[in-house]
Amino acid sequence: MATVLCIDQDEQYGSFVGLHLKKGGHSYIYTRFGAQALPLAEKHAPDLLISEVMLPDVCGFEIARRIRAHEDLHMLPIILTSTMCEEDEVRHALAQGIDGFLPKPFNPAALLTLVKHHLTEVKNHPLKDTLTGLSGQKKIRAELQRAIALKHKFSALYIEITGLAEFARKESDSTRDKLLVYFTKVLDRCREKTAASLFHAGHFGNGHFFCIVDEDKATALGEHLQHYWKSRIEKDLAPLSATSADLPGGAEKNGLDLMIYITGNATSSRRSAQEYFETLAQLRKKDQPQKGGIIIDNRRAR
Known about the structure:
Blueprint lengths: L2 E5 L3 H13 L3 E5 L5 H8 L3 E5 L7 H10 L8 E5 L4 H9 L4 E4 L4 H17 L12 H13 L4 E9 L1 H7 L2 H22 L4 E5 L4 E7 L3 H14 L1 H5 L12 H4 L3 E8 L8 H13 L8 E3 L6
Parallel strand pairs: 1-2, 1-3, 3-4, 4-5, 9-10
Antiparallel strand pairs: 6-8, 6-9, 7-8
């Protein structure tokens, strides 16, 4: 059973939602005022929030922004409802970091299906990567959305160890995992060198890392990582390997390389979390150097 916070200026609709949430095995807390969303969420720690967009005081979009900026509540799943469901309206809602949009009027089955989906997503996506101890993809996305909501000046770095699958085939899955754990420690050392005040790191699996860091520290972090890769990886790989005698050429001879992609918002940015991921994906598709390096989005100062 989950606890759902429901906000709707129409008390009859609020009762309708509450009735069917109860039938679905959930408890609910109701208010008709958007200004009560944050205090009620802080008091009751709900598992999910459902809010109408149009409210008499604070609108649903602003509720989403406040939740996403909150230190303790920014992971809370949010579903917005509205009779206005044009494409621009939905796009704007998603840009605030919501998880789902339910057009009014909706039937009880659609409501319960969406609630179940987002509650299940929370259970199925652990906050931390079990191998490295870094944040998982869902946690990183929430931290990215929080940085946007708080209007931080930050950059997002996508860091990829390429050739890892072939390396694991030649060495072993265990050696690959040791390398990833070791690289996580290197990432933390490089963070310390940059003295970044804003820093969140995640591992999405298979050598795909993601970092959120102060805008003015991003390039330095990338350079520190590349310097390590070029100057230390040959020495550090050997003790990790089951066949260290075959590693005199270091990472390059084993097909490993390090690619770093950077995008950010040197000035205020209106990009959503999804748009940051899309920008980094576009950078990865561009022509890449034969050897690892840093690719920077030239638009990041916009």
